[in-house]
Amino acid sequence: MTALDSGARVWAGLAVTPSSELMFIVGVLLAGALAGEFIAATTRLPRVVGYTLAGCVAAALGHGVALPLAGAAQIVTDLALGLLLFEIGSRVRLSWLRRNPGLALTSLLEALLSAVAVALVMRLFNIGWPTAIACAILAMPAPAAVSGRVALELGAEGQVTQRASLLTALNTLYAVIALTLMRTWWAADDGGQLGDALAGLAISLLTTVGVAALLAGGAYVAARRLDLRNESATLLLFGMVAFAIVAARAVGVSTLLMPLLAGLLLRNTSQRPWVWPRHFGTSGGALVLMLFVIVGSAWTPQLLVAGGFAALALLVTRFLAKAAAIVALSRWSGTSLRQGLALSIMMTPLSATALVMLNELMRAEPELAKGAAPIILAGIAVLELIGPIAVQFALRLAGDLPPAPPRRSARPEAPKKEGQP
């Protein structure tokens, strides 16, 4: 083989990879946008249903994404969910928990009760304790992407919308920390030294907090000098968050915990409210669209069969446990039973957060993730289309949706004649 032929082959290899990655991104964006607009034009459902439907069709035709995620799918998922979690964290005032202990107890109880209930139900299917605990932790967080996007599209505002953001932020925090602790325990139990495992855990958590603090500090400085409602300033903030997420991936810390902590630090170390376009405007909106298509395609018919009744049992148990905790404490936390039920329904979907946590577990502990993957992915597949509809119903039940604009008459009124009443 000549040097020229060798060089040509190398060039061809370099050319194919970027082209395929670019075609993936463009295809996902186009399919999701078309499906979302079709759903919005023909039904009263949120566009999110169309985005997810595009992914489900791709999965049914055998073109879904494979786990663990890699390439463009990994980048899009990290960035989109990281942006959403940073935004949710930056809108959560933790002093609310101090003023309302009933709400703080609701957060702890709904996360703990759902995890314990799911683990016990999984044991009824003869699933080992490690896999049952993994399923319980992966099913703990509520969907930051689904509830946030649907509420934004429908213009929802009110007690239930605000509480859903708070509970989502907190149970995501609990779940990521619990998963990190479980991986530490598993590493020590697998023949490693407990001291080494705990030292690695401490270094990981300190690094996560450090990166989060740098991001929060950078956002604070930018906000002091720029108007974040300006498009250029928003793009600067978008770039800072994206860079921090890429840096977190590079140093091996959680791309879920870091942006969430950064948002919480930004909001709770200053009295100033932070205002910028939701989802960071057009750039963030495009990433969120692609996130829904990717999550909607992360299953196969074989996985649905493998997950089977265990996945359905997990979903039912998870909803009943969360609903029992939220409704039981609704009066003490300052809401009506109707609002408590609506909040429970908003916490129902299982989506991108669980998928990213499962992806991390598959990379770190493939043997442990092997048993949990079919159940979690089957659960995500079942709720991907139902979840946004359930959130829309919950917002309507809670009264958080703005009044619908009056419909215009298709036929213009004829002008009245002079003297006619």
- CATH class identity: Mainly Alpha
Kindly state the percentage of residues in helix. Answer: over 70%
Distance between the termini: 94 Å
| Low-pLDDT sequence parts | 1-17
Number of helices: 17
Bulk shape: globular
Mean pLDDT figure: 83
Question: How many structural domains are formed by the residues?
Answer: 1
Structural class: mainly alpha
The total of beta strands comes to 0
Main beta sheet: none
Give me the CATH architecture, please: Up-down Bundle
Order of helices and strands: HHHHHHHHHHHHHHHHH
Radius of gyration: 23 Å
CATH fold name, please? Answer: Na+/H+ antiporter like fold
Strand content: under 5%
Keywords: Membrane, Transmembrane, Transmembrane helix
Organism: Pelomonas nitida
InterPro entries: Cation/H_exchanger_TM, Na+/solute_symporter_sf
Pfam family, one: Na_H_Exchanger
Explain what this protein looks like in three dimensions.
This protein is mainly α and 421 residues long. The chain has one domain (23-39, 46-398): Na+/H+ antiporter like fold, CATH 1.20.1530.20. It has 17 helices and no strands. Helix 1 packs across helix 2, helix 2 (47-60) runs antiparallel to helix 17 (366-398) and helix 5 packs across helix 8 (159-189). 48% of the residues are buried. Mean pLDDT is 83; it is low at 1-17. The chain crosses the membrane at residues 48-66, 72-90, 102-125, 131-152, 164-186, 198-223, 235-260, 280-299, 306-329, 341-359, 371-395.
